[in-house]
Amino acid sequence: MLRTDERVLLVDLLTPPAPGYRLERAVGTTFTMQLESLLRIPLAVGGAEMSEGIDPLGVMEAVRSSADRIDVFCQSGMLSVPSGRNALLGFLEPLVHQVRRPNPGRLFHPKVWLASFIKDGEERRFRLLCGSRNLTSDRAWDAVIGLDGVQGSTTHALNSPLAEFVASLPGRVPNGVPVERSAAISDLAQAVRSATWTAPSGVTTGENQNEWLKFHWLEKDRPVRADLSGANRRLVISPFLNAAGLSTVWPDGDCTVISRPESFAALGHEYLSKLRDERGAELFELNDAAAIPDEEDEDVGLRWSLRGLHAKVIVLERNRYAHVMIGSANATDAAWSGNTEFMVEVIGSVKELGINAALAQTEGGLRSILYEYSDIDDITPDEPKLQEQLEWALVDLAAQAFTAEATPDGDSWQQLVRGTEPVLDSFVGDAKLTVRLLSGSKAHSPNPGAAIQEIWKGLSAEDLTPFVVLELTAGSVASPVRATCVVMATLSGGPEDRIDRLIAKQVGSPEAFLRFLMLLLQLGKGDLFDPGSILPGQNPSTFGAFGIGSAGVLESLVTALADQPQSIDEIDRLVTRLSATEEGKNHLPPGWDAMWSQVLIARETLRSAK
């Protein structure tokens, strides 16, 4: 049954499936992405969600410790510019990969996450999420399917589309992906070929997963392998529609279509009448007003804060069985004949997964937030607005390979950013192009007809960054129209301790370090807490005053040695990084070195004994 009261968090993807398991690798894809949203994912590896009560230092260390195990791919030109400057974004540099359009005029549009988990002496486990949600803070109605699996001894043909799709990702990046990351992604793709998946609730067609599960990778030159014909009833949920797309996903049978009113209206009166009168279509739109509960409803701010339709679902009924497809593909010709898309299909009983179950009027049923679409006046689709035209221009501009080179400049640094393709002589609306570093505000205007080649001087080591902001501005000075995006350059040069300096800059005092240490110990246990409440009122000027020898830091470290020794390893990695610079050493509390050396001796003794 499709329900409106289920809440799936992306952080759940990276939560180990059983005690003792740890994240080995995670690969994600998204159309649009916000770096701020990406920050939340590495924190899940540390065992917590980011909230206002979590110290930013916790985010920093969670990102740092998991950066080598996570890769995220998004459409070039669709990485949004953060609302404010945030030094922590530097820790995301290894994770982000921007890909080219798969074909001219088409888009990289899948929303797939695949993670593997390992445990000594146990089989590898997998978790897969496939849906319609981008890696942003948007709060639209989305759909997602989650599957858990284990690695077996033999490969299964049904996993081939998933494995081949994951393996194709590094080759889509203009600058390529570092060799070690590309190899790890390839290993994950190979491993998932032998995955056996656990059937979700309602899937009852037998023990053989070939009978209930299919993966569909859609792209040009890959024939549509999804069997969309021969259904006596079908349900199509798609925020975007056109006639060619509907004819693909609805070749026969009765159909219920759920979409946005503007998408219905754009089809035109004549076509909508044909759908209703000749094909018996039922047309519904989302009723946001129906999702406004009593102010005292416990779901206020969670389910009921959602607005707008973004889910993509197809349900086909063939006799006793229902086929449910969930993923990224709209009912448009672009989705089914050119975009890169991914859909997961499960097959179960009509009673459990069929259209009546999906459109149930009961609480949690989809029908409870729908109403019939009735406005079928003709509408002439609007010409793309200038803002949209500028955004699409950035998609093509951002698809080239950018490089960045950092070199010493006296007591500071300079950074040179280069593109590989000439800048157009003119953009729509006579828009002007500017380029700046994400870490700064100084913008340059590249020369039309030549490749981007701009330099910034007088930078600190912390200002060096591969994140580059492109901006197109058109219109009047009084009322400008702007489109922006972030592109990833391949950064070379710069100090080897650039990341260490970022850490030292964030861990700005002995007090901050000790608060951070306690945060790591709590994250190791999966607890959420307010690190600002640790040892309130204590004098942080010396290590002893902050709790050594009392029920404070020392006791927590001794407990961690027994219960969560991996936290000791995390802290040691941070201490090593801080000790790499004089500034970082000054942020370690007095007396730390002597105490920590004893903790490490105890850690090694316990490791050897085990």
How would you summarize this macromolecular structure in one to three sentences?
The protein is α+β, with helices and mostly antiparallel strands and 610 residues long.
List the defining traits of the structure above.
single chain; 610 residues; alpha+beta; Endonuclease, Chain A; Immunoglobulin-like; 4 domains; eight-stranded mixed sheet; seven-stranded mixed sheet; 18 helices; 24 strands; disordered N terminus
Task: Walk me through the structure.
With about 600 residues, this protein is of the alpha+beta class. It folds into 4 domains: about 10-200, Endonuclease, Chain A (2-Layer Sandwich), CATH 3.30.870; about 235-370, 2-Layer Sandwich (Endonuclease, Chain A); about 385-500, Immunoglobulin-like (Sandwich); about 505-610, no CATH class. Helices cover about 30% and strands about 25% of the residues. The protein is built from 18 helices and 24 strands. The strands form 4 sheets. It has an 8-stranded mixed beta sheet with strand order 10-16-15-14-11-12-13-17. A 7-stranded mixed beta sheet has the order 5-3-1-6-7-8-9, covered by helices on one side. The chain has a 7-stranded mixed beta sheet with strand order 21-20-23-24-18-19-22. Strand 11 (about 235), helix 6 (about 245-250) and strand 12 form a beta-alpha-beta unit. The longest helix is centred in the last third of the chain and has 18 residues, at about 590-610. The two termini are about 50 Å apart. Residues about 5, about 45-55, about 290-305 and about 525-550 have low confidence and may be disordered.
